[in-house]
Design brief:
Distance between the termini: 10 Å
Oligomer: single chain
Number of helices: 5
Strand order of the largest sheet: 2-3-4
Protein name: Antitoxin HicB
CATH topology of the largest domain: Double Stranded RNA Binding Domain
Largest sheet: 3 strands, antiparallel
CATH architecture of the largest domain: 2-Layer Sandwich
Structural class: alpha+beta
Number of strands: 5
Strand content: 15-25%
Organism: Pararobbsia alpina
CATH class of the largest domain: Alpha Beta
């Protein structure tokens, strides 16, 4: 599971500016410390859409500095990030992935949508068509 470091900057109006050093497109504002995680995750997932749509690799998280807060991705979203990055590396477009999976384009779109709860076996199959294997571990 990936955890992206965040930078919190208090605004003069009492809100918190939330930025991701690794994903500059992910920016949001939270009204309280309690709202940071929810809004930050939404901003991060929206930024992933930009990377998916422009067929660019999503930067992986850097190591957080001591005491730096992070936003953790679920195992499912982490696997979608890895899948999208592998498709970019191999030059496999969504249409080609649909052909390899014998699926329709909307199914591939859902595999790459961080907000869609895809089945892990569908993602595992997509990796397999790319000649890769999805491995899960516990730490």
């Amino acid at each position: 599971m990936y955890a992206y470091p965040i930078a919190l900057t208090p605004d003069d109006n009492g809100t918190l500016l939330v930025q991701f050093p690794d994903i500059p497109e992910a920016i949001t504002v939270a009204e309280s410390e309690e709202d940071v995680a929810r809004f930050a995750l939404e901003a991060l997932e929206s930024a992933f859409d930009i990377y998916f749509d422009s067929r660019r690799e999503i930067p992986l998280p850097s190591k957080p500095k001591r005491g730096q807060r992070t936003i953790a991705l679920s195992a499912l979203v982490t696997s979608k990030v890895l899948l999208a990055n592998e498709m970019v590396r191999q030059g496999v477009r969504k249409a080609e992935m649909a052909r390899r999976l014998n699926a329709h384009m909307p199914q591939v779109d859902r595999l790459l949508d961080p907000r869609h709860s895809s089945k892990i076996d569908a993602i595992e199959t997509a990796f397999w068509t790319l000649g890769k294997r999805l491995e899960i571990s516990i730490s």
